[in-house]
Amino acid sequence: MNSELMEYLSEKIMEDLRNRKNLSPHIYYEINKYPIIDFIRSKINVSDLELIIELMNSEDKNVLYFGISVTKNILDEELIKNKLLQLWISSEYDYKTRREVMWRILDIKRLPQSIHIDIYNFVKSNWDAWADDTLLFYGGSHMVLDAIKKRAQDPSFIEEKHWVYICLATLSTDISNAKAFITKYLTSDKSINALVAKEMLKKFN
Fold first, then answer.
1. pLDDT tens column, 86-108
2. Do you find a cis peptide bond into 35, omega within 30 degrees of 0?
3. Cα dist. 205→73, 107, 129, 167, 174 in Å?
4. pTM listed for this prediction
5. In 32, 104, 134, 155, which residue has its Cα 20 to 30 A from 98's Cα atom?
6. Domain co-membership, 94 together with 135
């Protein structure tokens, strides 16, 4: 699907959402995947705050997860930031919700190191399920490295979040380039990135 079509679809989706059109939970599931979700996120602004809160308050998990996913551009809003952190705390025993909310929490600027460590421990504790689910989002192990490289080069994805891309690189079928991607973080001035890079390289042994 080319970018022109993605742009059109994302505009149409946002139009329907803003008009409170009743979309099926399955549609929310399908559009919460890479790359269409990036196009949808780019359309979100602070005027959509009420809409996003409605989605995040949904009892349907697919709607909730989509609502979480599209908050990236409005994370400076305290209401959104607090809602995400509350979801992380309240979902301690809910793997799927934590898997969804972790991504947006990692986009919060000046996030305490303790929260990065908490999320990293969550990823390690649920490695097999997390890896499978995240590869599904990115389209498979043959596509994941290119996708995370684009994110790592995009300044809208803060550097403190790169440790999660380091984890994902170990899932790539392109082992040589995956190792090279991870190795460059061994000297990162972000301690969490250096720590994770050192640990993830051991997966290739």
1. 999 999 999 999 999 999 999 99
2. yes
3. 39, 31, 21, 15, 15
4. 0.91
5. 155
6. no
